[in-house]
Amino acid sequence: MKQLPSINDIRLWLADNPGATRRDIAKAFGIKGGAKIDLKVMLRELEDEGTLAPRHRSSGGGDKLPSVTVLEISAPDTEGDLFARPVEWRGEGVAPVILFLTQPGDPALGQGDRVLAKLEEIRGPDYDYQARLIRKLGANPSRILGIFRKEAQGGRIVPIDKGADRFWSVTETGGAEDGELVHAEPLTKGRFGPSRAKVLERLGDPTAPKAVSLIAIHQHGIRDAFPDDVVAEADKAGPVQEKGRRDLRALPLMTIDPWDARDHDDAVYAEADSDPENAGGYILWVAIADVAAYVRPNSELDREARRRGNSTYFPDRVVPMLPDILSGDLCSLHEGVDRPCIALRMVIGEDGTKRSHEFFRAMMCSVASLTYEQAQAADDGQLDDATAPLAQALADLFGAYRALTRAHHRRQPLDLDLPERQIILSEEGRVISVAFKQRFDAHKLVEEFMVLANVAAAETLREKGSALLYRVHEEPSPEKMESLRELAREAGFNLAKGQVLMTRHFNQLLKQAEGTEFDELINMATLRSMTQAYYAPQNFGHFGLALREYAHFTSPIRRYADLIVHRGLISAHKWGDDGLSPWDIENLEETGKQISEAERRSMAAERDTADRYLAAYLADRVGAEFTGRISGVARFGVFVKLDETGADGLVPIRAIGDEYFRHDPEAQTLEGERTGFRIGLGQRVKVKLAEAEPVTGGIALELLEVDGEAPARSGGRRGRKGPIGRAAGKGRAGAAKAKKKVKRKRG
């Protein structure tokens, strides 16, 4: 590599070459590759001292490119570097320069090819962004996921798909080893012999973390490959016409999402209401991506989205409901980019009551894509470069949120406190850590705004007599209520009986348990007593949210139900010909059932993947000791939720103690026949990790202590009884008395 020039060498050269560009400088001194990064530092110094004219900045305000966008590849320059230009550029001045970085396995790209790319704003000496390929547009190679079996001449791939009865012959193995999980591309379909394929990617050990989500996708039948006609239809999509839409681009709407969000469904804005009759109230705007403008009824895109029902989220990947050019680009409300939306203007009273609302089909331009952490820091008084210009707008957003919390407290939706665990992966797909997500007021702010918008959508469609899919959550069954009531009684608490149960009664139970040793247990038991929500054209209310009518409207990029509601609003307001079709209306019941099943399928795949990742994370710690709490009792053993990771493990009955244990299913206890040692829900335990199996996600534990005391072994003394176990059948007074005894013993 040629030695870098000194900064003085560059000054002298610029004196002889006025008006030279940064690319000219790099060429003149023969600077290539990684050395351009060092050159960039020197050029910044020359900019600061005025020797070099500042370059055009394309990142301010509306001139910033979205993180996922469509690019057109330019011809390679004389040094072989590949550059690209954005297909959609509405900023001032010339479009930013984009360096395109190719990776092993990328298809060949030439001048004029269009690609969907992931952009990162990294300013080099002659470019503004770096881009990496997501997908070459117009190409949709099918993929095979299978186990590679090595043979004398190449090998074969045995797909892991359920019911697969054929294998693929492989000559282009890509260096795959016997038994590895691989991604492959079909080359030919043999009429008489085996079909041929080539290995595209080695995923390694099928039990390794990187393979976990892929296995779950195939086991649960998650559709992860779009048909060619669906991709072709999506690739033809272009910007939506502005005609007939309300222009909201001057409104400082902003998105607030997780830091790793690729798509942005919703944007928000609030301002204090100037109407003297609504003193202390707010005008709240919620704008939602207008997916219906791109996904027309009964199109190939529509049929595929209906089959998928929703996007499915894993720690290492997302299986989207819509092709990435829509979900990550055209439909997504990226910062500084004009986007079509369905907007909702709501007038909120000081007490949080929604006084009125109105829907519009509009055009918007997000002023900022903020993370929850950024929004929360701003509310805490810590502004950064992105939030400082929006200080007043953010203050009004949080003001509107705090008004809505007053209505929230009056309504009293179910107030469960179950922290969500987050699995953090390395670039290689290995689990780095498992933590519990922090929950800020910024999270609650977005949730409250979206709930109110969903209510407004349901109300409007009901008032206009339009067909729609409600989000239904029915009240718990009497059997589940009695089971929860019994558990509460054994723990020394009370759940109201003999009256119509409402969410406030559950909240009273949760409040009683708050801060006690049974806090998490009661929260989990309350959640398990609830019915599963579903979609239906009939309105049965939403029990958990304590709402009479509710519909999903705010996430049409990732949920098909929301797209149906959008079409209902389009039809009801006569905004266009892309509203509900006769077929949509006729098949609404079946659509509700289909997407409800898809939602359950995705939840099962996500849960299984999390279990496998946790098992893989713990596999290297077999023999280590952990603390946790008993979360379930069965005839064959007890389930323990570990404090550190939230993982659930099983203590088999054989690993509890050297005696026979009787199972009481009503009291949910195990009692030692010889010693009388009882084990019940909610008790604190210490366990040893006996086994962690990444393939199945199973975690086996050995019980060491229950509330500080070891289970009796052969010849051991009679063990004391656990608080819930001892109180079983004695009622609340007995349980309370038992808890006091335990506290005295501990003291």
| Largest sheet report | 5 strands, mixed, barrel
Number of strands: 31
Number of distinct helices:
18
Radius of gyration (Å):
30 Å
**Low-pLDDT windows of residues:** 56-62, 715-747
Helix content: 25-40%
Strand order of the largest sheet: 1-2-3-5-4
Tell me the count of domains.
Answer: 5
Query: Mean pLDDT, nearest integer?
Result: 85
End-to-end distance, in Å?
A: 72 Å
Q: Beta fraction of the residues?
A: 15-25%
Sheet/helix structural class: alpha+beta
Region (Disordered): 710-747
Catalytic activity: Exonucleolytic cleavage in the 3'- to 5'-direction to yield nucleoside 5'-phosphates
Pfam families: CSD2, RNB, S1
Family: Belongs to the RNR ribonuclease family. RNase R subfamily.
